[in-house]
Backbone:
């Protein structure tokens, strides 16, 4: 599903050059749940953007479902995200002037779906918000907003779901609900799940835990990830 070959990536911060990836090879099969951990500033979010085709590597190739991203123009990359990739951001990125239903339906409408509203309603019911479809983001709790964001991300049945700290802004109880929801969606739809998290319990329940530090991806046993000290947010 995901294949990185010799991928290097860096960015510049002042006079410093931050190595996000150093000649990384990585293979993630379809349907696998993978947690990305690492210290703040190590480039975990940049790695997700790379997988989404929103960033380009300095060297190497990135392929999603056998399709090399470096061979695609901007419009083709946008089509790939629209049709096959869902992205869940830590800060939700909901449109404040739209209801929960319209926030979820909008990407489907842009894609030309004739049943966008019905599909959006079904996804909101799936995440437990069937009675909140007409509420605006300001009328929803943080956990409810995150569930709307997840419904929007999976409404088009993506093959790949990328989640950036999906429980980072939530209390423990709400965060637990979001964890269960993501794993349930992964199991039901066989969607490949790649998430960035500082949550040790969340990471430990994934199939694999990859720690990003100084440009290297190191695979950790899930138990080791659960037992080590929490990384700073």
Residues:
């Amino acid at each position: 599903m995901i294949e990185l070959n010799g991928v290097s990536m860096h960015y510049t911060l002042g006079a410093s050059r931050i190595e996000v990836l150093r000649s990384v090879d990585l293979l993630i099969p379809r349907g696998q749940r993978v947690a990305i951990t690492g210290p703040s500033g190590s480039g975990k979010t940049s790695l997700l953007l790379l997988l989404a085709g929103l960033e380009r590597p300095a060297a190497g190739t990135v392929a999603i479902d056998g399709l090399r991203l470096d061979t695609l123009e901007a419009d083709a990359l946008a089509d790939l995200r629209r049709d096959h990739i869902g992205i869940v951001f830590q800060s939700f990125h909901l449109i404040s002037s739209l209801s929960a239903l319209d926030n979820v339906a909008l990407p489907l409408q842009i894609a030309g779906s004739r049943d966008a509203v019905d599909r959006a309603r079904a996804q909101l019911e799936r995440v437990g918000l069937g009675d909140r479809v007409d509420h605006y983001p300001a009328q929803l709790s943080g956990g409810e907003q995150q569930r709307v964001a997840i419904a929007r991300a999976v409404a088009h049945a993506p093959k790949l779901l990328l989640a950036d700290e999906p429980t980072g802004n939530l209390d423990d109880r709400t965060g637990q609900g979001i964890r269960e929801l993501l794993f349930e969606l992964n199991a039901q739809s066989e969607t490949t799940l790649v998430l960035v998290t500082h949550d040790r319990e969340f990471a430990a329940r994934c199939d694999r835990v990859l720690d990003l530090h100084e440009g290297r991806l190191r695979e950790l046993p899930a138990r080791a990830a659960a037992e080590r000290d929490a990384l700073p947010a």
The first helix runs from residue 44 to 51. The CA atoms of residues 86 and 153 lie 4 Å apart.
